Each structure stands twice: as C-alpha cells, then as structure tokens.
Amino acid sequence: MKKLLTLVVGAVLLASSVNAASLNNETVRSVMSEMGRINTSMKGLLKENDGLGPVNNSLIKKNKLWEEQLTSRIAPKETLFVAKAKAHIAREAVYKQRIERHNDACPKRMPPGPQYNKCKSEEPTLNRIRDRHHAEKADLNRERSGLIAERESYEKLIRDNNTKITRNYNRHLAIKAAVGRYEQRLEYYRTRLITLCSTADRNDWGESIHYCQSMRWDGTRKNLPTLEEILKGTRFFGK
C-alpha cells in the first residue's frame, strides 16, 4: 500500500513537473512569437519611414525650381507688363482729353462752316486712335490673363508639393510614435524573457532552454546546460 501511494505521489509530481515545463515552454514561445510580430511591424514602419525622407527632399527641390521660375521668368514678364500697362493708361488719358476737347468744340448739332469742317476732319484720326487703343487694351488683357494662369500653375505645383510634404512629415511623426510604443512593448517582453530564462534549470528541457541560450541576455543563468545535454538520455539521443 505504501509503495502504491509512493508511486501515485511520484506520478502526480511528475505530471506537475511536465505541466510546469510545458507552461514555461509555451510562455517563452508565445513571448518570442509576439516579439517577432512586433519586430516585423517595426521593420515595415521603419522601411516606410526611410522612404519618406527622400520623397520630401525631392519635393523640396522641385519647389525650389518652381520658385526660381517664378523669380527668374515670371516676375520679369510681370514687371514688363506693368510698364506696358502704365504706358497704355497714360496714352488713354491723352486720348480721353483729346476726345473731350473735340466734343466740346464739336457739338452734335452744328451748322456747316469752317468749324464743322474741322470737326469732321478730326473724326478719322480720332477713330483710328480709338481702334488702336481698344486693340492694345485687348492685347494687354490677354497677356494679363496668360501671366496670371502661368503664375497660378507654378503656385499650384508648390501648394500641392507642400501638402504632400506636410502629409509625409505627419506620417513620419505617426511612425515615430508607433515605433516608440513598439519599443516599449519589446522592452516589456525582453524583461519578461529575462525573468523566464533566469529561472530556467536542467528540469526545464525543451524549447525554453533553446530560446534562452540563443538570447545571451544579461540576467540569464550562466550555467544553463546545452540543449544536447538536456536531451541526452531521452528517446531522441538514447541512453
């Protein structure tokens, strides 16, 4: 009876030891798996982040080119246009003064005579000046519209690039924050593994010892047996 009780107690202790070892192995395995998942996620984020810098640098260079075009090509055209427009406005003022003098001297109803003949002789010249003035004004309006469109096209390119630069920078900040959170999780799991590995001994054969030996972290047991030593005497190696 005593021998039977001893056998039962031994079996229970053996079962408890096996369950504890299995739990430890499973815990180490799950921690390593989670660390691997976090590392994979971090690598993906860091790879994405590495691509943001060159993209933004390229966009900044393009913006500088567009800004140089605005300064070196568009601005001189605009300066020349303003000078032409001012000259046109000055000629327009002279023309209007001449028309006013003509209208004052030549009412719509006037009797034939020298003054009447003089007024009539002025009309063709005034009409030519009027037509030339209107044509010049139309040309200036077309030139103005073209300059506005050209400037706006460059400014739109710059605005669009600035929007992309801001979006990429915000994404960089989001990645930085996410990586920081991942690093905190890795530190937590690293500490957890150190704790698990520092309590391992020869009775904890299996994957946990293999993982702990492969880590070589501070805090692990320095006298841990090799995996081959742990498995020696089992059905894998024979006695």
Question: Can you describe what's shown?
Answer:
- With 239 residues, the protein is mostly helical.
- The protein has a single domain (21-231), classed as Helix Hairpins (Orthogonal Bundle), CATH 1.10.287.
- The protein is built from 4 helices and no strands.
- It has helices at 2-105, 114-198, 207-215, 227-231.
- Helix 1 runs antiparallel to helix 2 and helix 1 (2-105) crosses helix 3 (207-215).
- The two termini are 32 Å apart.
- 4% of the residues are buried.
- Mean pLDDT is 77; it is low at 1-23 and 224-239.
Number of strands: 0
Q: Helical content, roughly? A: over 70%
CATH class: Mainly Alpha
Q: Which stretches are low in confidence, meaning pLDDT under 50 for 5 or more residues running?
A: 1-23, 224-239
Return the average pLDDT rounded to an integer.
77
Task: Output the structural class.
Answer: mainly alpha
State the major sheet: none
Q: What is the gyration radius calculated from CA atoms?
A: 45 Å
- In angstroms, what separates the terminal alpha carbons? 32 Å
- Which range does the strand content fall in? under 5%
> Please, how many domains?
1
CATH architecture: Orthogonal Bundle
Descriptors:
85% helix; Helix Hairpins; 0% strand; mainly alpha; 239 residues; single chain; disordered N terminus
Short description:
The chain has four helices and no strands. By secondary structure, it is an all-alpha fold.
